[in-house]
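Most newcomers find our protein records easier to grasp once they have seen one. Sequence and backbone structure share a record, each on its own labelled line. To make this concrete, we reproduce a full record directly below:
***
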Amino acid sequence: MFSTAQILPAVLAFSVAFSLSVSSSAAPPSVKYLSPAGGQVGQKVDVSVDKTLGTQPVSVWTSAPGLKVEIPAKPAKGKEKQFSIQIDPSAKPGLYWLRFHNAEGASGIRPFLVGTLAEQAEAEPNEKLSEAQKVELPSATINGVLAKSGDVDTYQVSLKKGQTLIASQTANEQLGSPMDPVLQILNHRGTVLSQIDDTLWYDPRIVFTAPADGTYYIRTFAFPADPNSTIRFAGAASYIYRLTLTTGPFIDHSLPLAWHPSTAKPVALDGWNLPENLKTLMPSVMESNESALLSAPQLGNVLTIPMSTTPVVLETKATQEEAGQQLTLPTTVTGKIAEPEEIDVYRFTAKKGEKLSFKVDSHMLGYPLDTHMKLFDAKGKLLKEIDDPKRNDFDARLDYTIPADGEYRLQMTDRFQHGGFRYVYLLSILPTEADFSLQAANEQYTLTAGDKPLEIDVTIDRQSPRFNDDIEVSIAGLPEGVTCEPVVSKVKDKGGKSVKLKLEAKKGFVFQGPLVIQGTSVKDKSKQHTATAVIKGISPKRNTARPKPDLELPYLWLTIKKK
C-alpha cells in the first residue's frame, strides 16, 4: 500500500538538450498507460505503451534512480510500441514516474510500480471457473487488464484450512485506470464467500481465511470509475491492474503512522501473516526527506509513511479514561478507534494567546476514519467541534487561539461511530504557522525559441492562517539561452493570489527537461516551496461520497523547440 496523497519520491532529472533535424512526420511520444504497469526488483520487464513512443531518438526521465529504460533505436516491425525496463536489484520498491520525450515534445508522466514478489501475466481465456488461471502460492503479483466490455478475470489458488489469503488489487488509485474494480472469493461450487469493492478508495482488498482445505477462486470485474448509463461490467485496454495474491506477510499500517529520525527505533507493523522478525521494521528515509519507506523482500507490499516534525507517541489505555492521556505540546500522536462508538480522550496544558493547529490524517493516508473532533476546557465546556473542515475533506483541521491558561481536553471519534482494525489516525498539535503552496496551470509546457514568450500562470494558495509575506516566484536551473525574470507576489496586489511568469529562449535553442517553479518568502528565505500541477489522465473524477482529490505532483516539464 501506498499513501498518496500527499507523500513523494525525490526527483532524478534525466534530461537531454539536443539539436536535431526532423521530418514533417516527426511526432512526440503519446502515452496514456504502460502494460505491464510494474515489475519485480532485480528483473527485466518488457513493456508496451498504448499509443506511440514517438520519433526516435526517444529518452526517458524517471522520478528516482533504480530503473534503466532501453528503447530500441530500430524496433522490429510490429514492436514499435515496446521497450524494456531493467530494475536494479538495489532499487527501492514502490511507485516510480516515467516521462518519454524526444525533439518534438514529451508525454505526460505515467506510473510504474516496483514490487518484491514474483510476477506473472494474466492469460486469457480466464472468465469461467473452469478456465481460471492457476496461481502458485505463497505469493505472486499478476499484471492484468479487463480488456473489453463485460470482461471478467478469474484465478485459482489452493489453500489449507486456516490459511489467510490477502488479495489486493491496484488499479484506479496508483495506476490511474478509469475503473472501479470489484474482487470476489468463491469456493469450488462458485458460491461467493467474500466480496469487496472499495478499500483504498476505489481499489479493493480482501483478507480471507480458508474454512477448509480446497481450491478457491479470485474473480475480478469492474465498473467505470466515472459512472455512466451502462449496467454491465466495463472494460477497455486502459483497464490495467496489478493483483497481489499472497498467504505471506502483508502490511496494513504501522504504529506509529509517521516517523521522526531522532527516535532511531523501528516501528511496529500491523497486518496479516507477519512473523516475529517482521512485526517491527526500521524505516528508510526517502530522498525527499518528506517520507520514509517500510519494505522487506518477504513482504507482499510496501508502506510509505510521512516524516514528522516532532517525535511520535502512541495512544495508551488512558485515552479510554475520563481524564484522558496526558500530552506535552508540541506533539504528534498515533491512535486507533478500535471499536464502534469508541472515543479517544487527550488532555494538555496551554497558555492564553497560544495559537495551536490541530490536524488529523487518516482518510488521506488511505484509512476509513471520518474524524469527529471536540475541544473542551477544564470545566467541560465545549469550545470547538470539527467534522469536515470543507467539502469532501474527511480529516479534521482546526486553528485555535487558546482563550485562557489551563488544561484542555480533546476528544477523537468517528463521525458515524464506526471503528475497527483500520481506523487509525495521526494527530498533531503544533504551534500555528502561516504557509503557502504554488500550483501551475499545466503539467508540461512548450516554448518556441525566438518566438513570443511563453506565459506560465502560477496560482498561490496563502493557507489559513493567511501567509502575509510577499513571495518571489522564479524558475530554478534554467539553461543558458533561456531567461525568465522572477515575479513577486505582493499581498497588497489583489491579495497576492497569482502571478504570470514569462519565459523566453534564444532563436535556434532546443531543450527538454524538468521545469522547477519555486516560491520563496521575501522576508524568510528558508520558507520555500515548489509548484505542483494536476497530472492529467491519472485523476479520474471519482464522483463518490468519499472522493479523493486530484493527484498533484511537482514534476513539471519544459520543451523548447525551433521556430
Notes: Helices lie at 172-175. Residues 172-175 form the longest helix (4 residues).
